[in-house]
Amino acid sequence: MTATTPQDLSTELAERGWRTETVIEPDGSETYVQIPLTSEEFLHPQQGYRLPNSTFHDDAAGDAKDMLTRRYADDPTTAVFRDLIIKWGIPHLKNHCPDTFVVFGLQNKEQIRTEFVVSEEGVLPSLIIEVVSPHYRKEDRQTKVKHYAQAGVQEYLIIDRRTQRRQVIEEVLGYRLVDGQYLPLTPDDEGRIFCETVGLLIGLQDGRVVMEDAQTGERLLNSLELEQRATQAEQRATQAEQRAARLAQLLQAQGIDPEQI
Predict the structure, then answer these.
(1) What is the pLDDT of residues 180-224, one digit of tens each?
(2) Which of 13, 77, 86, 206 makes the best surface tag, with the fewest CB within 10 Å?
(3) Can you tell me the distance from the alpha carbon of 19 to that of 14, in angstroms, rounded to the nearest whole number?
(4) Which range marks the domain in which residue 256 is found?
C-alpha cells in the first residue's frame, strides 16, 4: 500500500475542499486537522468549510460577480452575492453556497450578511451561477439542477472548462424554470446562453467569462478591463497634449502665435 505524501494530501484538499477538525492530543494539547470534504459536505457546506478552488474557478466566479455587481450598482433593490450560504427554509432541502447569485427585490441591499435566509429576505435568488469543480462535476452539473429547481430559482447557469483527450473544452449550460421544472437552454452559435433574468448573453472565451447585453450588444467589462481602458484613455490624452505642445513650439519658432489660430 502506497503511503500518502504531504503533496498528495495537499492536492486532494485543493481538489475536494476541506473542513478543519480539532483533535485533542493525549497531553491535552489541541491539533487542527484538515479533513477533505465529502460529496454531501460539498453540496451543503457550513460556515468555515473551504470549498475547492483553482485559478480558473476563482477568475470565472470573481469576474461574474464583478460584472453583475457593476451592472446593478445603481439599483438599490438588486444585489449580487458570492460564496454566501443560502438557507432555503424548504423541508428536505439543505443549504447551498453558490459561487455567484443575483437577487431582485431586496429591502436592505447594503446590509452585512453572513448568510442569506430566504424566509427573512422575502425573496429568492433569480439567477445562480456555478463554476464546475472538477472533483464534483456530477454535483454541479446534475445534482444541483434538481436542488435549485426544487428551491424555485428561475435560472441556473453552469460554467465548465475541462480537458478531454488533450483538448480544452469550454462549455456554458443553462436551465430555466418552467412549471416547476428546469428546461435546458439552447446556446447560440457562439456557445453563449441567454439569461432572461439579467438580460445577458453569457459565454466563455479563452477561459474568461464574457457577458453581453442582449439588447444593446454592449459587452460588460470587469474591473481589470475598466482599469486598462482608463489607463489607455489617459495615455492617449497625454500623447495628444504632447503633440499639441510640439506643434505650438514649431509655430512659435516660425513667429506664429498658436493662440491666434
Answers:
(1) 999 999 999 999 999 999 999 999 998 999 999 999 999 998 877
(2) 206
(3) 12
(4) 224-260
